[in-house]
Structures are given as C-alpha cells and as structure tokens.
Amino acid sequence: MRHFQRFLFVILLPALLAAEPKPAGRNNVLFQVSTIDALALGLFQGALDYGDLKHQGDFGLGTFEGLDGEMIALDGRFFQARPDGSVRRVDGKATTPFAAVTHFAAEVKLPVAQPASMAQITAQLDQVLSRNLFYAIKIHGRFASILNRSVSKQSPPYPPLATVIAGQTLFPDRNVTGTLVGFRSPALAKGLQPVGYHFHFIADDEKSGGHALDFEIAGGTVEIGVIRQHSTYAPLTPEFLNAPFPLP
Ligand SMILES: [Zn+2]
Question: Which helix (H) or strand (E) element contains residue 36?
C-alpha cells in the first residue's frame, strides 16, 4: 500500500493541472469502437476493421465480429484468443464490434514487490486513481495463477452478451509470465465502457490469453497512462441507430 500512496501525487497531478491545457498528442487517447451497452444487447456486427483500428492504438482490448474470441493488443501486436485455447495474430481484414485502444505511454511505473491478488491490486489502485478519469493500465509479471476466459463465435440473430458469457470457456493457468492490458473506466462512462477494471491477458510466449477474470501476481510492474481524451466510433448499423440506449 505504501508503494502506491507514495505515487498518489504523481498520478493525480494531471487532473490538478487541468486548468493548464496542453495538446495531448496521440499518446493515451482512448479510442473505442461502439459501446459496452451495444455489446450487451448482442450487437456483434463488425463495425471497423483491424487495419483501421491499428492506426488508433497499439494497446488495448476488444473482440471480433460475432464475438469470435477475445482481443489483446500489446506493443502494436494484435492477438485473438479463441475458446479452443489457441492464440493467433489478428488479420487486418478481421472486424470488431467492440474494442478500446490507445497509444500507451506510461506516466507512472510501480513495482509489485509482494504477491498480490487481483482484488488487492485493484483496491490499491482505487486508493490513488481519480474516480472520474479513464486510465490505461499495463501489468507485466509472473502470475502464480490466472483465470482467463474466451467466448464462442455467434451467428445472427445474435443473443445478448450475458447468454454468450454463460457459455464461456475458462482457462486456468499457473506460473505464467505475461501482460495484463486494460483500462479502468469511471462511473461517468456507464454505458460506454464497463465501469471499473477490464483486463485482457497475453502470455509472453503468446500461447495463452483471454479476458482475465482473476489472478494472483507473484511480482512485476504496474504501468499507468492517464487518459485525457476519449472518442467513440459509432457503428452506422440499423441495430445501433435504433437501439434503446441508455440501458437501465
Ligand atoms: Zn474483456
């Protein structure tokens, strides 16, 4: 805990300097395709292809048309983790119904010196992050255990997201070294992004990954990028245009 509190001032400084605007450049600008509410409703039609998405960021997460697995983007490499356990590089022609990416630039780097659970790590981050900002979060380290999941490709007419998640495939793993890529989204973003933490994982050997449900990290580093700018790419599909947003 002390480690994190020491950096409290550093993390919150950008918010304190809001009165002194400066161009954000492209670093840590969050670009998202569609919205989490659209995904919840089963709007799994591809809205943007990965060739275009790659211009908007080198780091992030998402999925594929039809909810064909979990997407992980790290250092400009885009991966698809499928429910059969395979992980492969993403073809630029593949499309996404939902993704969130940024050009990641760490502004704060914290050591994870002691073993910690996902609940402990996120509780510590909660102590030092503003409740009203988006953050990009990269956690690299050795994981004593990690539980990832992936989902199966659906066909139209698409079911709601919750129905697909009920049939998710779980991949428990032990002693794996890799990276969690993710975001923490503020409550003000409800409907756009999952509020709170959302992590996807990719192993260093690129052989396992998925949407991270839980983990126990043995040691590593946490890097944080403060998101000052955010944009949503709206799909111009009849399904999106006519959806009853916001969802209750
Ligand atoms: Zn996910």
Answer: helix 36-40
Q: What is the pLDDT of residues 13-58, one digit of tens each?
A: 554 444 444 555 899 999 999 999 999 999 999 999 999 999 999 9
| Nearest by Cα to 38 from 119, 96, 113, 125 | 96
Residue 118 gets which letter from DSSP?
H
Tell me the pTM: 0.92
CA–CA separation, 43 and 240 (whole Å): 7
Task: Report whether 73 contacts 59 (CB < 8 A).
Answer: yes
Contact (Cβ atoms closer than 8 angstroms) between residue 180 and residue 224: no
The CA 187 to ligand 1 mean position distance, Å, reads 17
pLDDT tens-digit series, residues 59-89: 999 999 999 999 999 999 999 999 999 999 9
Please give the helix or strand (H or E) that residue 4 lies within, else none.
helix 2-6
Q: What's the rounded Cα separation, in Å, for the pair 242 and 40?
A: 15
Cβ partners under 8 Å of residue 248, min gap 6: none
How many A from CA of 130 to the centre of ligand 1? 22
Place of tokens 């990965």: 50
Q: Are 84 and 168 in contact (CB under 8 A)?
A: no
Strand partners for 100: 32, 61
Give the Å distance between the CA of 71 and the centre of ligand 1: 8
How far, in Å, from the CA of 111 to the mean position of ligand 1?
25
Which residue, chain included where needed, has tokens 């049939």? 167
Contact yes or no for 103/59 (Cβ under 8 A) = yes
158 backbone dihedrals φ, ψ, rounded to 5°: -75, 140
Which value, in Å, is the radius of gyration of the alpha carbons in the chain?
A: 17
